[in-house]
Backbone:
């Protein structure tokens, strides 16, 4: 696997971890009735998910480029 693919996998995982933390914060604020704070964390979590998806797609492309051609 290329170093580039490895980095994309690591970055995807980091963004997913950040997204999970923000979703947990959103849930906590939602339960407390702090809907504005919940929305902020939900939006931030979504941003991290978008970034994670990008990195996962780039890792898959790299994998195909290095191992998919026959």
Residues:
């Amino acid at each position: 696997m290329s170093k580039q693919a490895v980095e994309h996998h690591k970055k995807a995982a980091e963004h997913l971890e950040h997204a999970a933390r923000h979703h947990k914060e959103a849930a906590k604020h939602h339960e407390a009735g702090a809907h504005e704070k919940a929305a902020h964390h939900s939006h931030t979590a979504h941003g991290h998910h978008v970034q994670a998806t990008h990195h996962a797609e780039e890792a898959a492309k790299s994998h195909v480029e290095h191992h998919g051609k026959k």
